[in-house]
Write a structure and sequence with these properties.
By secondary structure, the chain is α+β, with helices and mostly antiparallel strands. The chain is about 20% helix and about 30% strand. The chain has 3 helices and 11 strands. It has helices at about 1-25, 50-55, 130-135, and strands spanning about 30-35, 55-60, 75-80, 90-95, 100, 110, 115-120, 135, 140-150, 155, 170. Strands 1, 2, 3, 4, 7, 8, 9 and 10 form an 8-stranded antiparallel β-sheet that branches. It has a 3-stranded antiparallel β-sheet with strand order 6-5-11, with no helix packed on it. A hairpin with a 5-residue loop joins strand 9 (about 140-150) and strand 10.
Length: about 170
């Protein structure tokens, strides 16, 4: 009888903590790995050690910004790829709805439509971003990256910034 009560109590607590954890990761914040070179040097900077080259940065993604799409130019966001919804990308917001942006390597300017934003990686030579698939719908955004939380020697706040020389008209 004692074992049965113990297992029942353990099951209830596990279920409760699981629901609380799921709710927090779905509504408040979560941790996400950053893979690839598209956001170098902000994330995954090159290192000279063998072990360092194998470790990805892990970031804290806050989701309160999704309530009313409270984003600013220079924020780093996590979003689903417009072409493959199973892929998640981490990029920097360059332009918001209503902004005009000069498209790199052309003389074209594009007005960002309502409900969309323009994102680019910090390492433009190695980034699949709005220059490839155009403005992304804000509905695909999963959250804003606020801090690097792993590895321990890289723990820091992620600064909001717009790359120098990136022309945007507001």
């Amino acid at each position: 009888m004692g074992t049965r009560n113990f297992l029942w109590d353990l099951s209830k607590k596990s279920f409760t903590y699981g629901l609380i954890g799921f709710t927090i990761s779905d509504r408040c914040a979560s941790i996400a790995p950053v893979r690839g070179l598209s956001m170098v040097p902000t994330f995954n900077p090159p290192t000279s050690t063998f072990l360092g080259s194998l470790s990805d940065d892990y970031v804290l993604v806050e989701k309160f910004c999704l309530e009313k799409y409270k984003f600013s130019r220079g924020d780093v966001i996590v979003f689903c790829s417009p072409s493959n919804h199973r892929e998640k990308h981490i990029k920097r917001i360059i332009a918001l709805p209503g902004d005009w942006i000069k498209i790199s390597h052309t003389y074209d300017e594009l007005k960002i439509p309502d409900g969309h934003c323009w994102v680019e990686g910090d390492n433009s030579a190695s980034s699949l971003d709005s220059r490839s698939f155009g403005p992304i719908p804000l509905g695909l955004v999963h959250g804003r990256v606020t801090h690097i939380v792993w590895p321990p020697h890289r723990v820091a706040q992620v600064k909001r910034r717009i790359p120098q020389g990136r022309p945007v008209s507001y």
